[in-house]
Specification:
The complex is a heterodimer of chains A (662) and B (551). By secondary structure, chain A is α/β, with parallel strands linked by helices. Chain A folds into five domains: 67 residues, Arc Repressor Mutant, subunit A (Orthogonal Bundle); 86 residues, Glutaredoxin; 212 residues, NADH-ubiquinone oxidoreductase 51kDa subunit (Rossmann fold), CATH 3.40.50; 106 residues, Roll (Ubiquitin-like (UB roll)); 86 residues, de novo design (two linked rop proteins), CATH 1.20.1440.230. In chain A, strand 16 and strand 17 form a beta hairpin. Chain B has three domains: 115 residues, Beta-grasp domain (Ubiquitin-like (UB roll), Roll); 144 residues, Alpha-Beta Plaits, CATH 3.30.70.20; 237 residues, Rossmann fold. Helices cover 24% and strands 19% of the residues of chain B. In chain B, helix 2 crosses helix 3 and helix 8 packs parallel to helix 13. Chain B is elongated. Chains A and B meet through helix 3, helix 4, helix 20, helix 21 and helix 22 of A and helix 2 and strand 9 of B.
């Protein structure tokens, strides 16, 4: 091991060794992120020494660690202030004023925010006295209580821009908002216990409520029976793609020789989605029970919960829940006397949206940059974690497994609509009076009921202009659009019917038929005060920031689209911009390694298509002459020695504009 | 090459652009298309490396056989399967062909995909091709011509990245030109076993780099330059020395060790500018080591011997070739066979070694050997035997155990028993003789390319050619006969080695009917069974296996 100037305490090294033991002995690399967290917690940031030390510890090359430190935004290479504030800048929070929160907090703390040098990374700005530092981050998954910030590890909700100064000294007496009790239109299964005054996260409370009975029931069933119940239930994945869970499970061969892994995807990051946060924070044993039933069904001896880095509290709660469950022998060696050994480990992400993509998640869990894998050949069910068969399921999906065992697959399937069974949690944020989460029978509630009855409708004097129905990657729907959907008629027959946005049932198939998707269940409402170019620009910034950069179309296209909408907002829009935006998006969607391509293209495609007038009105300047050469003649002569300092944020275009070339 | 008989490979029917072809099972779709004459452009794919599928340039339309209700493929009027085309384009670099697969490489969708990818790759790429060292052999340029747009729609500022970074002693990086294809990273991991390169940062700001504390300095680092499809990685030795389109390319092989990696020598007007590896799966795959690649500068050294010289009195004076040859032979004729020794070289070609053995024969010399030359080898390409033609020297009887007789030669020179020493391409000081001992020799005939302390002591000095200046053959460490081709003319009055040896023999014993190097080879192949039926031209570009693979 390299000599190091920093003294690594025995305690720290013990924690690191413990983290390493959570992964197979020949897969030490997986411990890279846990070790980086431990280092950062101890020393405040990841120094180059830290990079080398961790690399040596894991028998890796320093570059392997440097690749991670620079990929995951939650790792920093320079010290932050004593108190570090993260301000969410993604859509719902931005709409609720998070940019002003940032501005006011900086003023209060005396922080001069340095320019975001390359327009992508959100560098940390530290106050002169070093007491405080601040950065913009992407979605913190609490869109219902926007705008939100994190002060150190604590989430501060509903931060009023005028009260941003309070972030510097959060008042512990201010309680976070009350958890909502169910709306009459809700059908709560997963969220049954949330908001109950007598509910706590400890296992005794869960057991009093009949907890782990389904696990006990499941271990009396055969594996095939459990898989069959899940198949019969018609459960579709709640993460975004809506893939049938039972079908996914049946990809695992009954006589599989390699170890099978289960990964719970708790990397909730799709803007507008904040359901998993409450499951994890309020009812962790429900999730754990779902995971353990699934492990038993799939003969999984090791499961990982990949939880997003922005949920530090959630990770602690789950760690505690695992220890409690272990004490009751719900996991560990010889689980409940079945002879079946199962372990569940927490693995924390570190701020990369792409880890929600299952193969990106797997790469991340292997201790690499979260570059999604090509499929074929790397289908997780065949060549997943450590090239072993792997099932990746969303938090909510795994919770449903418990209820499927409780109800039976058949009765569960009678909830909701055919092919859209069960309940699901939809999250409403943006321009509504009562944003929040609502668990509904799939399809039993229309968009109108959801927005007006449940979420209270738009603020007074405002009307709904548009809705993004399934997380920010879903195609936007206009309030005045008409959709042709196959709808059940009063006489029971199915006929095509023209409906308004508000008549669309909230289910997978109807939203797909309307040209968008149910996605992750994150409904973002935009009222008539919203500038659609601004809105798209905010979304574009998110995707440009979160593109992993592995494959060409998404890497280059996502930033290009953001730069175009940046320019349009700054008054530099040219007549070709809408067409350019559309074709750039067209050239991304369907041509990338993973679905991020669609995720970043669909907003642009739909916004430009559906709000033509707004985009046209910002794109009135004549098309400029060909781009001036990017290097001056002097630089050309001094070839290859061009300074690498970044350009100011928007220099060239605005200068060109004033020079009259537009 | 193995001795087991392989079963004939299973052939699969694949439709490419409407025409059915057959390919062995395991053929990559992208390779199948190329074999069928429909080259699919690619950046990240390299057939010797893993497929990350990241550049998206090789997107094509793909289809699988349409299945009927009986789950059997439906057959069309031509008796071939009907194809169910996938709506989304697929990359062709990561999948093998399968029975009944359909591929369209030139459909409107495929063309549109390439155009889109080309545009994306160029928006942040500097468009300063005139000053880029890769110009002329840049895939971005080439595919721009074929698949790109003339005009740019990009009105924004390009992403700025580090430039002119020395990644290591031999490789320079321009991150703005990098298209993040990861070939170099994969090469370092998978071939060089030195995981030194990686990407840092994210999205469009991703940057190729090495950790500041670890340089790209492994002995294979320059292969990353070869496989870099753009001007991101350049050879610090070659960059900005010559525009590549002026280079004359000569197929040859590297003579720096017994591996004999196949090469292309890039020259202009008799100056060598670079050596790059040439694919030969029986020898070097697609790679070569940096040590061998850069080992040509000595051919342009100031110490090249340019003029035959003979000892007159106590001074070497320039002489005409016929004078020098006559002088050398006249000296040798003074001595009996047991008074002469020959130090030959494992760097000589077979033709030269054959003539050397003939010379030894007519002189009756028994004291003949080559100088072994070893260094640390690796498990990749570099052989511990740094002589390129030890096997040739063995086969042609110049040595049986290389170096075994050197001790005796040295002792006999020191003891005065050997009075005439012939040093061919070797410096006797390296076997432990001193300049004084060499100077004491009544006859010391030296054929070499560079001057050194020993050449000063010569009684006849015969300047010869280096590996890139001559034709000839060698047998590598694995018994493969390979051919050198002349890339540049030799300097000054220096002559091709085989001609010098031929002239020595003729001057000693009269005409021997050898007028060309082909004649040498013919004579040699008639005498040596392993070479029977071969000729220089029959060796071809990829060589011929003539000996059992050693080891």
């Amino acid at each position: 091991m390299d000599p190091t100037n920093t003294r690594i305490s025995a305690e720290l090294e013990r924690k690191m060794d413990e983290a390493i033991r959570r992964y197979p002995p020949d897969r030490k690399r997986s411990a890279a992120m846990p070790l980086l967290y431990l280092w950062q917690e101890k020393f405040g940031f990841i120094s180059d020494e830290g990079v080398r030390w961790i690399a040596a510890k894991l028998e890796l090359q320093p570059i392997n660690i440097l690749e991670l430190v620079t990929f995951y935004p939650m790792f920093r290479q320079a010290p932050a202030g004593k108190k570090h504030i993260r301000v969410c800048r993604t859509l719902s929070c931005a709409m609720a004023g998070s940019y002003r929160v940032m501005e006011n907090a900086c003023t209060a703390a005396g922080i001069v925010r340095h320019r975001d040098e390359n327009g992508m990374r959100n560098p940390i700005s530290v106050s002169a006295d070093g007491k405080c530092s601040i950065e913009f981050v992407e979605c913190l998954a609490s869109c219902g209580t926007a705008p939100v910030c994190m002060v150190e590890d604590e989430l501060i909700e509903n931060v009023q821009p005028s009260a941003a100064a309070a972030l510097l000294n959060p008042d512990p007496s201010i309680q976070n908002p009350q958890l909502s009790s169910p709306h009459p239109l809700e059908h709560r299964l997963i969220f049954k216990n949330i908001g109950r005054s007598d509910w706590t996260t400890d296992i005794d409370c869960y057991l009093r409520d009949g907890g782990y009975e389904q696990l006990k029931a499941a271990i009396k069933m055969s594996r095939a029976e459990i898989v069959n119940e899940v198949k019969t239930s018609g459960l579709r994945g709640r993460g975004g793609a809506g893939f049938p869970c039972g079908v996914k499970w049946s990809f695992i061969k009954a006589d599989e020789k390699k170890p099978v892994y289960l990964i719970c995807n708790a990397d909730e990051s799709e803007p507008g989605t904040f359901k998993d946060r409450y499951i994890i924070h309020e009812d962790p044993h429900q999730l754990l029970e779902g995971i353990l039933i699934s492990c038993f069904a799939l003969n999984v001896k090791t499961a990982y919960i990949y939880i997003r880095g922005e949920f530090p509290e959630g990770a602690k709660i789950l760690e505690h829940a695992i220890e409690e469950a272990r004490a009751h022998n719900f996991l560990g060696q010889n689980m409940l006397g079945t002879g079946f050994d199962v372990e569940v480990y927490i693995h924390r992400g570190a701020g990369a949206y792409i880890c929600g993509e299952e193969t990106g998640l797997i790469e991340s869990l292997e201790g690499k940059r979260a570059y999604p894998r090509i499929k074929p050949p790397y289908f997780p069910a065949v060549l997943g974690l450590y090239m072993c068969p792997t099932i990746v399921n969303n938090v909510e999906t795994l919770c449903h497994v418990k209820h499927i065992i409780a109800m039976g697959g058949g009765p569960y399937a009678r909830l909701g609509r055919p092919n859209n069974t069960g309940t699901r949690i939809v999250c409403v944020s943006g321009d509504v009076q009562r944003p929040g989460y609502f668990e509904i029978e799939v399809g039993a509630v229309t968009m109108g009921q959801l927005i007006y009855d449940m979420a209270g409708g738009p603020r007074s004097g405002r009307t709904v202009k548009a809705v993004i129905p399934g997380g920010s990657s879903a195609k936007v729907l206009r309030a005045d659009e008409r959709f042709k959907l196959k709808m059940k008629q009063p006489d029971g027959s199915i006929a095509e019917q023209e409906v308004s946005l508000f008549e669309i049932p909230m289910d997978f198939d109807s939203l797909a038929a309307a040209g968008s998707m149910a996605g992750s269940g994150g409904v973002i409402v935009l009222d008539d005060s919203r500038d659609m170019v601004w809105t798209l620009n905010n979304i574009n910034e998110f995707y440009a920031h979160e593109s992993c950069g592995q494959c060409t179309p998404c890497r280059e296209g996502s930033l290009w689209m953001k730069k175009i909408t940046d320019r349009m907002l700054l008054g530099g829009g040219v007549v070709q911009d809408p067409e350019t935006l559309k074709t750039v998006a067209d050239n991304i969607a369907g041509r990338t390694i993973c679905a991020f391509g669609e995720a970043c293209a669909w907003p642009t495609q739909s916004f430009v298509e559906k709000f033509k007038d707004e985009f046209a009105s910002r794109s009135q300047k004549p098309v400029p002459p060909a781009m001036p050469p990017e290097y001056t003649p002097g630089e050309l002569i001094d070839h290859e020695r061009i300074a690498t300092t970044a350009l100011p944020r928007n220099p060239g275009w605005e200068e060109t504009a004033t020079a009259g070339t537009i | 090459m193995g001795d087991q008989v392989l079963a004939p490979p299973q052939l699969l029917n694949v439709q490419i652009n409407g025409v059915w072809h057959q390919f062995p099972k395991g053929t990559r779709v992208i390779e199948a298309c190329e074999q069928a004459g429909s080259y699919v452009p690619r950046y990240c794919y390299h057939k010797k490396l893993s497929s990350p599928g990241n550049c998206r340039m090789c997107l094509i339309e793909m289809g699988m056989p349409k299945m009927g209700p009986d789950r059997k493929p439906e057959v069309g009027a031509d008796g071939m399967p009907l194809i169910n085309w996938m709506p989304r384009p697929q990359i062709s670099c990561a999948q093998d062909v399968s029975e009944g697969m359909g591929v369209r490489t030139d459909s409107p969708l495929a063309q549109e995909c390439r155009k889109g990818v080309m545009e994306f790759l160029l928006i942040n790429h500097p468009l300063d091709c005139p000053i880029c060292d890769q110009a002329g052999e840049c895939r971005l340029q080439e595919f721009s011509v074929e698949y790109g747009n003339a005009a740019s729609r990009f009105l924004e500022n390009k992403v700025k990245k580090p430039k002119n970074i020395e990644l290591g002693p031999r490789v320079t990086l321009d991150d703005e030109r990098c298209i993040l294809c990861s070939r170099c990273i994969r090469f370092c991991q998978e071939v060089a076993h030195d995981d030194v390169l990686g990407f840092v940062d994210r999205g469009s700001h991703s940057v190729l780099t090495a950790h500041p504390g670890k340089r790209l300095e492994n002995n294979y680092s320059l292969n990353t330059v070869d496989i870099c499809p753009v001007g991101a990685l350049t050879s610090s030795d070659f960059r900005f020395q010559m525009r590549v389109w002026f280079l004359k390319e000569t197929k040859s092989f590297c003579t720096s060790c017994a591996t004999g990696c196949n090469t292309i020598i890039g020259t202009r007007e008799d100056v060598i500018y670079r050596q790059t590896p040439r694919e030969n799966d029986a020898v070097n795959s697609s790679w070569m080591c940096d040590y061998g690649r850069l080992n040509f500068g000595y051919l342009q050294s100031d110490t090249r011997l340019l003029q035959p010289e003979i000892l007159a009195g106590d001074k070497l004076i320039p002489a005409e070739w016929n004078v020098a040859i006559t002088h050398a032979v006249a000296q040798l004729k003074h001595f009996s066979a047991w008074e002469i020794a020959i130090i030959a070289s494992g760097r000589m070609t077979n033709e030269e070694l054959w003539l050397t053995s003939q010379l030894a024969k007519i002189l009756g010399v028994d004291l003949i050997d080559i100088v072994p030359r070893t260094g640390p080898g690796d498990d990749i390409l570099l052989s511990a035997d740094r002589n390129p033609n030890t096997n040739g020297a063995r086969l042609l009887g110049v040595t049986s155990v290389p170096g075994a007789k050197l001790r005796e030669i040295k002792d006999d020179v020191v003891g005065g028993r050997v009075k005439a020493l012939i040093a061919l391409g070797e410096n006797p000081i390296e076997i432990g003789l001193t300049v004084e001992q060499l100077k004491a020799l009544p006859a010391f005939v030296v054929m070499n390319i560079l001057s050194n302390d020993a050449t000063e002591a010569a009684t006849a000095l015969l300047p010869s050619f280096g590996f890139a200046e001559k034709r000839g053959s060698m047998i590598n460490g694995k018994g493969r006969l390979q051919r050198l081709n002349r890339a540049v003319r030799g300097p000054g009055q220096a002559r091709d080695d085989w001609e010098i040896l031929r002239d020595l023999i003729q001057a000693y014993s009269g005409r021997n009917g050898i007028y060309s190097i082909e004649d040498v080879f013919r004579q040699m192949s008639e005498a040596v069974p392993a070479l029977a039926g071969l000729s220089l031209s029959k060796i071809g570009d990829l060589g011929v296996q003539v000996m059992e693979s050693a080891k």
